[in-house]
């Protein structure tokens, strides 16, 4: 299995050559600033980041929503952290599963 196997080809409009670069950006943020990953519902994931990365997180999520329109991101600054709720339709739960696993792995790798 490759790093992008969990991303359905028909669900992402990002050019194939750019996908590993996008994944690397997520990995870097997860490794550097992710505090917690919590599955709050089958179709929702809550990511907690250090507040210092608010600008890069917002930029990356804006780019991701542009190519994978099924994602819904809600970003909330709170008490020194940045909470990001990620929601997907039930038809894309495998993408949320993959994102959750990826986030947790990168966080654990750097702790």
Keywords:
111 residues; 41% helix; alpha+beta
State the secondary-structure class.
alpha+beta
**Main beta-sheet annotation:** 4 strands, antiparallel
SSE sequence, one letter per element: HEEHEEH
Tell me which CATH architecture of one domain applies here. Answer: 2-Layer Sandwich
What fold name goes in the CATH topology slot of one domain? Alpha-Beta Plaits
**Beta-strand content bin:** 25-35%
Low-confidence region ranges: none
Q: Mind telling me the C-alpha Rg?
A: 13 Å
- In spatial order, strands of the major sheet run 1-2-4-3
Any idea what the shape is? globular
Folded structure, characterized:
The protein is α+β, with helices and mostly antiparallel strands. The protein has a domain at about 35-110: Alpha-Beta Plaits. About 40% of the residues lie in helices and about 25% in strands. It is built from three helices and four strands. The protein has helices at about 20-35, 55-65, 95-110, and strands spanning about 35-40, 45-50, 70-80, 80-85. Strands 1-2-4-3 form a four-stranded antiparallel sheet. Strand 1 and strand 2 form a beta hairpin. Helix 1 runs antiparallel to helix 2 (about 55-65) and helix 1 packs across helix 3 (about 95-110). The longest helix has 17 residues, at about 95-110. The protein is globular. The chain starts with 18 loop residues before the first helix and ends with a helix. The relative contact order is 0.22.
